[in-house]
User: Which sequence fits this backbone?
């Protein structure tokens, strides 16, 4: 629980209360939102955000501005200059720093009373007890394997005798102008693993992934052709039918970090 009542002022959450107080299609006549629910959302709920990239920045900002005050964020990447055009929590002076740490500092400086706890590392570094402390997990990941791991972890946490062990997962993703989001209740609804056959083979890779943490041979090839070729050859266009160009691409991609 976060003790930040002194940072609340009259009318701070009026815009959110208009939504929380509105009756829905399934509410009884004379519905009134309970103060207990609002207090839980604002002063007790603990939220974990996985990923502080393009989608993660939006998630963190929206959670803070909605009234959630105890937020944790995990990300293993550092900030690249290519991130600055869309990941609005970062500035040129932040290049090379941890995304999670910089994002947390930005949110806390901008939104009074919000506590954002960052972790610069892999989600696999944390044990079950770490994930059990949260009321909700929200993913803004660009890796299928990372999604599968957190999905399996949350499913395995569920104890039928302990309802609090069920941690709802909101999974989101973007590519270009397209995006998707879904709510997963482990062991109750279909999970991420259930829908793997519906995934398309990726045809594009996030620049921040291929520059900082390449995980596949394709990432290294993309890094060499998209980032290194213009840096070395300037405006000259790569000719994929030219053996010399392809040999250069192979040599540079083979020497890329991470693979």
Assistant:
């Amino acid at each position: 629980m976060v003790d930040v009542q002194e940072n609340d002022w009259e009318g701070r959450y009026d815009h959110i209360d208009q939504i929380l107080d509105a009756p829905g299609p399934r509410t009884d006549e004379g519905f009134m939102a309970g103060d207990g629910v609002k207090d839980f959302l604002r002063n007790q709920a603990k939220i974990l955000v996985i990923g502080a990239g393009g989608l993660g920045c939006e998630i963190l900002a929206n959670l803070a501005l909605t009234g959630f005050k105890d937020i944790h964020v995990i990300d293993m990447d550092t900030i690249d200059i290519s991130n600055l055009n869309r990941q609005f929590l970062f500035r040129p002076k932040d290049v090379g720093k941890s995304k999670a740490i910089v994002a947390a500092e930005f949110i806390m400086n901008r939104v009074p009373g919000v506590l954002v706890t960052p972790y610069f590392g892999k989600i696999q570094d944390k044990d079950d007890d770490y994930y059990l402390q949260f009321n909700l997990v929200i993913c803004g990941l660009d890796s299928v394997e990372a999604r599968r791991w957190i999905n399996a972890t949350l499913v395995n946490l569920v104890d039928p005798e302990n309802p609090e062990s069920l941690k709802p997962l909101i999974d989101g993703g973007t590519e270009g102008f397209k995006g998707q989001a879904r709510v997963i209740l482990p062991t109750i609804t279909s999970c991420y693993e259930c829908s793997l056959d519906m995934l398309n083979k990726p045809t594009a890779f996030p620049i921040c992934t291929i520059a900082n943490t390449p995980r596949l041979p394709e990432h290294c090839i993309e890094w060499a052709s998209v980032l290194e070729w213009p840096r070395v050859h300037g405006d000259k266009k790569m000719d994929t039918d030219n053996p010399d160009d392809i040999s250069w691409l192979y040599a540079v991609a083979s020497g890329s970090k991470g693979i």
